[in-house]
Amino acid sequence: MENMFVKASKQKLRFKVGNGNASTEDLWDLTLDQLDTLAIGYSKDLKETEGLSFIKPKTNRNASLQLKFEITKFVIETKMAEADARKLRQEREAKRAQILELMQKKELSALENKSLDELQKEYDLLLEPAVSGA
Fold it and tell me: What is the pTM of this model?
């Protein structure tokens, strides 16, 4: 089965957007609201043409409308999945930052709870030159 994007490029499909036309690749630049409006329009057009005849085969117009609808739905689904993934990534980064901050506070707290002698020993160790493994 031929890929819908291959079909779209062979047919040089154009999508009615506002006062102009958009190519298939231009759909990726549209907002989800614009894409939703486009998909709703294609869905309505398909429903209107589906009931015209039960004995005549689908016309090229129906096939073209169906292809436009499927491509628009694919772009919507992909953009929504990407937005969800972006949100999840941001939430994970925020959680990692919180954990790192808490770890630093715990390290500081552990350091503050050490005795003066223990702190002096750690400090003196930090003053010694690093020993190379050579």
Answer: 0.70
